[in-house]
Amino acid sequence: MTDFQHDALNYQCPEDAFKDRIILVTGAGAGIGRTAALTLAKHGATVILLGRTPEKLEKVYDEIKANGGPEPAMAPVNLAVARPEDYLELAGLFDKEFGRLDGILHNASILGDITPLDRYGTGTWDSVMQVNVNSAFYLTQAMLPLLRASEDARLLFTSSSVGRKGRAFWGAYAVSKAATENLAQVLAEELENTSPIRVNTLNPGGTRTDMRALAYPGEDPQTLKTPADIMAPYLYLLGPASKDVNGQSIDAQPK
Questions:
Q1: Which of the two ends of the chain, N or C, has the fewest CB atoms closer than 10 A to its terminal CB?
Q2: How confident is the model at residue 254 (pLDDT cuts 50, 70, 90)?
Q3: Cα–Cα nearest to 24, from 66, 87, 111
Q4: At 77, phi and psi to the nearest 5?
């Protein structure tokens, strides 16, 4: 286990570690994204909730406010159909409202089909790559000026074990996560000596989410950690404690 891995897993986040930090979370309406948004707000972050379903975002918004967190913002965006110019428009809105971003958690993903590649539907393949890879690239590209405006910014991409080593039947999801790893590595090297942005990937591992239930329908969800159980490495990699961590691939649940 690397020092970075150890530090991430054992991180005890100070109560106000994210005070005055502005963090964009994609897929914030449910699962890990929802829990991450709530947890970041609990530690003082102003969270921008990006997701496809306004009703889900509103519930997270209301919960953050009820818990006494800083007032969040909502960005209803369907990553499956959003265009590059849509992200540029969004960046303009964030610039007017906040003037900078201190972090982005790229959490939103779709699973696609668990099936052999010779049976893989072209429409499903395109949708998975669009949501998991293309949207992350275009969103990041549009937001880089806002991240550069921060004194200490983070880009955290969500990976998977099948993105680090391909596995039969995982199709577009595995390929998209391998692309995510490479995208993060390229960005980490390009930004390392030219900006205050640190770029890393985090594999959450088997977690009690709707996506996991789709992938493993026969699995007992009670045997899995909840999103709340794995928040320490998210807080570590999105916050000030990881200022010297760049270009790393970390597991939230190492074997």
A1: C
A2: confident
A3: 87
A4: -140, 130
- 69 burial class (0-12, 13-18, 19+ CB within 10 angstroms)? buried
Is 48 in a helix, a strand, or coil? strand
d(CA 125, CA 132): 11
pLDDT band at 5 (very low <50, low <70, confident <90, very high): confident
Q: Are 19 and 196 within 8 A, CB to CB?
A: no
Q: Give the model confidence (pLDDT) of 136-181 as tens digits.
A: 999 999 999 999 999 999 999 999 999 999 999 999 999 999 999 9
Q: Which residues of 94-123 are buried (b: 16+ CB within 10 A; e: fewer)?
A: beeebebbbbbbbbbbbbbbeeeeeebeee
What are the catalytic residues? 173
- CATH entry 3.30.300.30 includes domain 3-250: no
Q: Are 198 and 246 in contact (CB under 8 A)?
A: yes
Question: How far is C-alpha 101 from the geometric centre of its chain's CA atoms?
Answer: 14
Cα–Cα distance between 57 and 64 in angstroms, integer? Answer: 11
- Distance between CA 154 and CA 143 in Å, rounded? 12
Q: What are the residue boundaries of the structural domains of the chain, listed by start?
A: 3-250
Mutual angle of helices 171-191 and 122-129, in 10-degree steps: 30
C-alpha–C-alpha distance, residues 91 and 96, integer Å: 9
Measured between alpha carbons, how far is 106 from 104 in angstroms, rounded to an integer? 6
User: Tokens 């309406």 correspond to what residue?
Assistant: 29
Beta-carbon contacts of residue 7 (< 8 Å; ≥ 6 apart): 236, 241
DSSP three-state, residue 17: coil
CB atoms within 10 A of CB 205: 16
